Amino acid sequence: MVGNGKLRRWRFLLHKTSAPAKTKPEKTQPLDEFICPISGLLMFDPVVVASGQTFERTSVEVCLGLDFVPVLADGSKPDFSTVIPNLTLKKAIANWCTSTGTDLPRYSPDYSLIKDSVRKLMPSSSQDEAESRLRDSERILINEMAEKQPATLTHAVTQLNPRSVHYNRFYSSSSEESVIANIPDTPPLPLVTRPSCYSSSVSASASTSSEIVADETLDPNSSFSDDQNLSKKLQSLDVFEQEQSVILLRKLTRTDEEARVSLCTPTLLASLRECVFSRYSAVQTNAVAALVNLSLEKMNKVKIVRSGIVPPLIDVLKSGSTEAQEHAAGALFSLALEGENKTAIGVLGALQPLLHALHADSERTRNDSALALYHLSLVQSNRVKLVKLGAGSTLLTMLETRLAGRVLLVLCNLAVSHEGRSALLDSNAVECLFRKLRTENVDSTESTRENCVACLYSLSLGSMRFKGLAKAARGAEVLLKVEETGSERAREKAKRMLMILRERDDGEERRDWEALLEGGASQTRSIKAKAGQYPSRSTDFSVTLSKPNTMRKLEARKRKPAPVENKSSPAKLVKKGTEINLTVNDPYPAYHRPTSEECRSVRDDLLAFHGFPQQFAKYREQRLKIVSNGNEYGSTMSPTLEPADSSKESVLDGLVSTILSQNTTDANSQRAFSSLKSAFPTWEDVLAADSKCIEDAIRCGGLAPTKASCIKNMLNCLFEKRGKLCLEYLRDLSIDEIKTELSQFKGIGPKTVACVLMFNLQQDDFPVDTHVFQIAKAIGWVPIDADTKRTYLHLNKRIPNELKFDLNCLLFTHGKTCRKCIKKEDNQQKKETGSCPLLNYLMKN
């Protein structure tokens, strides 16, 4: 009985385990959401398109390449105009594969396989049309790049890849501003997307080996076409077999773009990386050449950099053979076209070898190294590294060589940054560029001359040194000639520079004195020396203030005894238009309030009473982040701080918001800004809109015609000056330079500039509005007869930098809520309570 019981229990267990065995195949079937509707495969990289459906990324790229929109099972047609990664679905697929034991896709599906699947969905007429449209230009490209084609023509025949019209697969432009010339008659160098070393022919060093494997390359079914088998061959211990494999890979990827995509897998890249390290010249050279071919596809560029292949490329560029160096420079140039790679390549240490390669014996190495530096210098971090490497003087010495056109592209990028501009001015760039323009070389092109003018124009922006350097180099006569005979863009820039050189002496004197008087002579000197605009050693004032009459006035002022001033004798003002320029350092030099202790005490009392205002909390967080990251520029300069995401308020957003807040309540100004952004999502839309439409959008904020005119004028001036609507470049300037830049816009007053400085640029400034002004007078921080402009200058001199932001926000908030401080009995929004944290200061005053 016991044995029978055990047998029954055993049979029962067998019966229970048989049920899940039958249902197991049903559980391993993936959900329909995990399957790409086009390829029918489990998705490796799911993306959401504009119409809401999810596809495999490769499927979308194939459809865009063939210019084909499939009809889905439900009869709808997807919209491929926007592609967004679906990370949630990708994670869900990974979890499902883990729970069911299904193999997770390791690579994106084969491009050619998906292409065949899409062609089956296409009608025969559409398929023939797409095939003809894709292949005609490619046949022309291959024919023009025949084996006998000279190397110097490779740039000209590959300026724009034919596929780029469809989905920007081969070329990625940077979001940074570029000031290079764009001559429509000849393809500009910045649009070159293929290295000089790329050619449809194999190098002479590999010709013998190529003949051995020629028959294999013609066989499409060869086992070498499998990336796994090819990877094994590349890792072979037999050097001859390794060489044959890398030559075959080079030939397979030379003209077949589908092979480039399908073979660019992590496994093959790891094997190819070991070949780049090879001590055998033939293996190393062909490996780097194969890498150049793989890098021509846009989708491969990020994969290659992430595979860790850049450091061995840099080693080849440093110490490889001549041909290997050509390919290494070409590979770095090709990889630098992708925006995501620019910072990484700079961090990995490619900048210094590329600078050294500009003096290489091979012309191809020099050309590709220069273009690589151009694309890498589109990123601010790389521009700073180039300045530290002394690239400015190196590049300026090459303006008289055949590499001048490419070198000027890099100089233009350096000149748009504050660090690069200062370094170039110190390297005598103004004289070098004017000499280049003055010398009429036979081989000098219109684009080269225009880039010279563009670089000079960038050096002239926000720099007080440019005028003196340009006059010393006799630049006015050169600019006059450019204004007469140059291109349209060159004439416009030359005209603006001539206006700078022709400014009256008193205008220059006024700007220099403002810089000196706002910060003091010694403070301004230290600021400019730190920013790179003045030499670090002590220099005579005649270098700083170039006009003789300015120097005479300065000497006369030193000899003249300082007048004794009191509260009843305010500083003398010189009024010009709407600006008031002070002729003294502090309008109330005998008025010694507020003290640092007084400012700190008022700050603490207001903070305990109100808490920190929530409306300014986000700006305070931004300032705290800068402090925690370490501000190497001190209190007068801020490091380059790019917006962390698209939701963060830009400098231009802050400027327009401040304009809309004038003479209205906070609620109305916020409504006006929201209405403006709702009607015109981008600032380009505002610029193109009619003034009446802008007025209607901001009418709820009051003074709509005046504010609309101010915004429209500011956007027009900004676009004419910078070529795009962006003020982020102000983050790289000093406070004096920022004030100079913003004051050029009509309708932008000192209070608006101060608000942008404090809130959007995280600078130490103290704006004075009505509330702050009235409280300052009430507690005796300024004389009773003070005005807002003198109060602004006086408080900025007296209040410590570290207290300015918190104290300003708290005084503004308190002024809106306390009727005792501003003495407005009729405002119902004021607190009726008798408690005021500033009551003691009011009684003392």
Automatic annotation (TrEMBL):
Describe the reaction catalysed, as an equation.
Answer: S-ubiquitinyl-[E2 ubiquitin-conjugating enzyme]-L-cysteine + [acceptor protein]-L-lysine = [E2 ubiquitin-conjugating enzyme]-L-cysteine + N(6)-ubiquitinyl-[acceptor protein]-L-lysine
> Which InterPro entries does the entry mention?
ARM-like, ARM-type_fold, Armadillo, DNA_glycosylase, HhH-GPD_domain, HhH_base_excis_C, Ubox_domain, Znf_RING/FYVE/PHD
User: Any keyword Repeat?
Assistant: yes
Q: Which SMART domains does the entry mention?
A: ARM, ENDO3c, Ubox
> A Gene Ontology biological process annotation?
base-excision repair
Q: Which UniProt keywords apply?
A: Repeat, Transferase
Describe the location of the U-box domain by residue ranges.
29-103
**Chain positions of ARM repeats:** 308-345
Reading the lineage from the top rank, the first entry is Eukaryota
Known Gene3D superfamilies for this protein? Answer: Helix-hairpin-Helix base-excision DNA repair enzymes (C-terminal), Hypothetical protein, domain 2, Leucine-rich Repeat Variant, Zinc/RING finger domain, C3HC4 (zinc finger)
The pathway to which it is assigned is: Protein modification; protein ubiquitination
Major enzyme class: transferase
Q: Which Pfam families match?
A: Arm, HhH-GPD, U-box
Tell me, what is one Gene Ontology molecular-function annotation carried by this entry?
ubiquitin protein ligase activity
What EC identifiers does the entry list?
2.3.2.27
Q: What is this protein called?
A: RING-type E3 ubiquitin transferase
